Amino acid sequence: MSSSISLTKAGILATLVSAAASASCSVETGYEVTFYGYADNDPPGADIAYDCGRGYTAGGTGTYDDPLTFATAPGEFSKCEVIYVPYLEKYLRFEDTCEECTSDYDDGKLHIDIWTGPTTSNGGSKLLSCEDSLTPDASQIVVTSPPDSLTVNTGALFSSGTCHTSNIYKSPSTSESTYCSGSSSGSSGGSSTTCAWPGHCEGATCSDDNDCSDPWACYNGICGTGVVTSCAWEGHCAGTSCSNNNDCSDPWSCVNGVCA
Length: 260
What we know:
The chain is of the alpha+beta class. The chain has helices at 9-22, 99-106, 124-134, 176-180; strands at 26-37, 68-72, 82-85, 90-97, 110-117, 140-144, 158-159, 162-163, 217-219, 222-224, 254-255, 258-259. It has 3 domains: 26-178, RlpA-like domain (Barwin-like endoglucanases, Beta Barrel); 197-228, no CATH class; 231-259, no CATH class. It is globular, with a radius of gyration of 19 Å. It starts with 8 loop residues before the first helix and ends with a strand. Residues 1-22 form the signal peptide.
């Protein structure tokens, strides 16, 4: 989103080591989160401002070793700094600049712009619509100097003309201990069973068992165990949409926008 700035590998390592030495893991609140991609990059394409070890091309799957590109105001983070965003369950790396983020930062507002993709084609109106769909109304938390063992969803946000809104997590925990202990999942509520297929876990909609990650199956259009639990608040039971835990009847919680 701006002219390229060259960083040598030695410089990259020095930056990362310096950042790690001077900061400890913390959870920062109040970030506006938006999304950008090939179509609305300036100029259009996948070019980015900083080479953080994989060239001047945006990308990444969101793992600690392959963080997803994000843009923000110069000075808001160190160049090539890695953060973790529970809203996506992805690690991100500061690799680009953002004009609106810079204006917001000058006004005292925190703002990051996250790469949506694709890297080799425009995406057009479908991409722009996807960015709007992914953008949350509420401010989000950012974990700085995160441990490398947090839960990660490597699923794409946009691919082959399809927007993957199932790869966002609308009700993450805000507890620092959840993320800075180095061993806890970033998601809140729901089942404690490990889910290997994000977007197809307990509470997700389904048409048959093949739509659900193990160990769940499809019951009445919802991935679950099939165990019937009484519901005291009709219309707020398992499988109904939600924005937070208060929208769900006990014993369910809001997981990825669905009571589960």
